[in-house]
Amino acid sequence: MQELQHLAAWVKERYAQEYILTWLLSQPGLWWSDGEVYQAAMQKSGKLLKDYVQKKQEGEVFQGIADKLVKDETWDAVAVSLGRIFGVYQQELVKLQDPSRREGGKAASADLTVKAAPVLEVQQALPDPYSDPLTRR
Predict the structure, then answer these.
(1) What distance in Å separates the CA atoms of residue 12 and residue 57, rounded to the nearest whole number?
(2) pLDDT digits (tens, 9 = 90+) for 19-78
(3) Of 57, 79, 133, 135, most Cβ neighbours within 10 A?
(4) What is the Cα–Cα distance from 55 to 90, expressed in whole angstroms?
(5) Please, are residues 33 and 127 in contact by the beta-carbon 8 Å criterion?
(6) In 3-state terms, the chain is what percent helix, strand and coil (to 5)?
(7) Taking the alpha carbons of 72, 74, 78, 80 in that order, is the dihedral positive or negative?
(8) Other beta carbons less than 10 A from residue 45's beta carbon
(9) What's 105's DSSP letter?
(10) How many helices (H) and strands (E) would you count in the chain?
């Protein structure tokens, strides 16, 4: 257990920004438009992300990692990165829905060349499947 605590302390010190981004991507309900993380990413609001992370900190391994990112610009950068991830995800969904790709029978991995990602505009979010269809809550 001490080795894990030592590793967690090292990650907090060296890679807090990357660790928080990865942790955010594992949060349940992340992709739904009414979620706090999604809204923070769409608004490019590091403050909203910081509030969410501080509110959700659990366990001694994760405790205090939000305090390692002291500059607002650092939180804003995490929000922008998360927004870009959402944009790429939505682009891939569109590709999968393209009928010509499905009919062509080509594997989706055929065009795995990596290019620099341009600034992406994110489409309207999908509705929450668990919300009430009448009240949208």
Answers:
(1) 13
(2) 888 888 888 878 777 788 888 899 999 999 888 888 887 665 566 777 777 788 888 999
(3) 79
(4) 28
(5) yes
(6) 65, 0, 35
(7) positive
(8) 18
(9) T
(10) 6, 0
Token pair 């999968």: residue: 96
| Whether the predicted model's global pTM rises above the 0.70 cut | no
The answer to whether the beta carbons of residues 78 and 49 sit under 8 Å apart is: yes
The DSSP symbol for 133 reads T
Lookup: tokens for 104:
């062509």
Q: Contact 47/17 with Cβ under 8 angstroms? A: no
Say how far apart CA 52 and CA 20 lie, in whole Å: 11
